[in-house]
Amino acid sequence: MNQKMDSGIGGDVSLFHTSQLDKLINMARENSLWYLLFGLACCGIELMQTGGPRADLMRFGAIPRASPRQADFMIVAGTLTYKMAERAKLLYDQMSEPKYVISMGSCSNCGGLFQLAYSVCKGVDKVIPVDVYVPGCPPRPEALTEGLLKLQEIVRNEPFWASKRRAPSGTAGSA
Q1: Packing angle, helices 18-30 and 141-157, rounded to 10
Q2: Rounded to whole angstroms, how far apart are CA atoms 174 and 132?
Q3: Quick check: helix, strand or coil at residue 11?
């Protein structure tokens, strides 16, 4: 697999196949994921705590961004109402490809405690595709960190040259 160039030309330089280039690009992508803050309810407080010094998502390369055009993934944290679902869809559409979504907490996963209310969306996956579900009410910062690690695994195993990701559907898979 590895071929060595003549050491007289420029030293020992290894040549790799393009799959190695793909791994290198995905390694850079997985360690520089910027997230869009979308905290809606009590899960938003735990999201803020995860960005604090104790859990510190920045050590994994995850940096909060306020603009959807700069974000690689969105963390939907809290109760999603139908009125707010329109805004979540708009922000998701403004993000550049490839884009990912983490659904944080029972309320954004399935409506949670408020699922019988007429105004509550029965899961963010009804509006936008979700890549990672983080369970809990509200989930601890460690659970969100685990969700970020799952998302990094998805990015690591995804072919970089794939043109587009899947279209939004009624149900999406979890990692």
Answers
A1: 160
A2: 5
A3: coil
Query: Any long-range contacts for 52-55 (C-beta under 8 Å, 24+ apart)?
Result: 52/141, 54/141, 55/141, 55/142, 55/144, 55/145
* CA–CA distance, 72 with 26 (Å, rounded to integer): 13
Mean pLDDT, contiguous 10-residue spans, the chain (175 residues) = 51 54 78 84 86 86 86 90 92 90 90 88 92 91 91 84 54 45
| Length of the chain counted residue by residue | 175
Is the distance from CB of 106 to CB of 120 less than 8 angstroms? no
Contact 108, 81 (CB under 8 A): no
Helix (H) or strand (E) holding 74: strand 73-77
**Residue in the structure block whose two tokens are 């990015």:** 155
Residue 53, preceding peptide bond in cis (omega within 30° of 0): no
Q: Report the distance separating Cα 106 and Cα 123, nearest Å.
A: 9
Tokens of residue 175, six digits: 């990692």
101, 124 Cβ separation under 8 angstroms? yes
